[in-house]
């Protein structure tokens, strides 16, 4: 069982707006909040977002470097995946592999792929 994940971000307010909206759609709730961070919780698992110090922000993040590639979450249905994909596009956020949607992960993997404000890849998967 996963306890929590902690991500350092370049712009806490942009991150808060993106992730609070998305994870609220997936059933997460606000858990903690402080000057330099916040967390969202689902059941016993939570995700923490922390503003990175300026001195450590220069290298930036890229999912193709060593470290985290992406975070994947279950949707409740294919309909929810489709709704979220439309909302992501409507918000002006980046939907990845749009030309292969919703089967970019293969013919039996119904999912959307997007990027958060720091270009962390996010996957939302419909249950089988």
UniProtKB/TrEMBL annotation:
* Presence of the UniProt keyword Electron transport in the record: no
All copies of domain VOC, residue ranges: 1-127
Q: Which UniProt keywords apply?
A: Metal-binding
Q: What Pfam families is this protein classified in?
A: Glyoxalase
Q: Which SUPFAM superfamilies match?
A: Glyoxalase/Bleomycin resistance protein/Dihydroxybiphenyl dioxygenase
Gene3D superfamilies attached to this UniProt entry: 2,3-Dihydroxybiphenyl 1,2-Dioxygenase, domain 1
InterPro entries associated with the record: Fosfomycin_Res_Enzymes, Glyas_Bleomycin-R_OHBP_Dase, Glyas_Fos-R_dOase_dom, VOC_core
Q: Which PANTHER family match?
A: FOSFOMYCIN RESISTANCE PROTEIN FOSX (PTHR36113:SF6), LYASE, PUTATIVE-RELATED-RELATED (PTHR36113)
**Protein name (Swiss-Prot/TrEMBL):** VOC family protein
Source lineage: Bacteria, Bacillati, Bacillota, Bacilli, Bacillales
